[in-house]
Amino acid sequence: MADTQRRDRLQGRALAAIISHAVFRLESAITIALTLILVFLYPNPFYWWQWWYWLVLGAAGEAGIVITSIFDATTAQQVVADMFRETYNPAVIQTAALHAQVVRALEYQRRIGDLVARTPAGPLRDRVRDSAAGIGEWIGNIFNLARRLDTYERDELIHQDARSMQAELQDLQVRLARERDEAVRAEIEEAIRAKEQQRENLERLRNTMERARVQLEASLTALGTVYSQLLLVGARDVDSAHARRVSESINEQVATLNDLLEAMSQVYSGKV
How many angstroms separate the CA atoms of 239 and 77, rounded? Predict the structure, then answer.
């Protein structure tokens, strides 16, 4: 059920992108322009011809362009690859290593899409496509993970807090040891408790981000493994059980990254 829903969502987005591509492609512009020219300059080339016949012919030509775009596997794959690159634009990731990982993930997605497009139409293509149904969500999770890590890496305030935390705590503890006024001591003790809580939150955040770094690399490795497995699924002697195992691997990765992204959101929101 989850695979079907993911596939339906991805197919819906892909279909919208393909139709948009068809409408704005050069052939479409020429068809529309030619139709308008004929309507205004040659409305009645024959005595029986009505001006709106040109509109009917133009609409039929435009429909043909859209239909051929939808059923052209190569064009569809290129449009989908462009859609992913636009949606998960690596340019927004400024940390070099993370940027490279997003580019790598998108390259795997493109190659998997090419594999589906190259597979002859029929049950075999359906098997490969169904196995790859969760790739879109997987790529989205990788992108979101990299973007969260990028935000953390470039958050100088957090890193400054982490560097100065121990010295600030030691300073408060020295002041507490020297202070004799009970009211001031109470305020210092409250400040120490707040600092310790902040230190704990920052440590949790650091640990979570370190876990995210490791998981991002592991997820990219798994994506490469799935790509090689899908190449095997394309072989006619591979049974559907292998395809199911590939699909299960994708589901596991998607679930793992979903859980990690949720944990990152919770920890990051409570960093201070």
Answer: 25
Residues 147 and 3: their CA atoms lie apart, in Å, by: 25
The count of other CB atoms within 10 Å of the CB of residue 193 is 11
Across 136-164, average pLDDT: 88
- How do the domains of the chain map onto residue ranges? 1-71, 74-269
Q: How many whole angstroms separate alpha carbon 197 and alpha carbon 272?
A: 8
Question: How big is the CA angle at 30 (ends 25 and 35), to the nearest 5 degrees?
Answer: 130
Q: Which one, of 206, 183, 211, 175, lies nearest residue 268 by Cα?
A: 206
pLDDT tens digits, one per residue of 73-120: 566 666 666 777 778 888 999 999 999 999 999 988 888 887 777 776
Output the pTM of the full model: 0.67
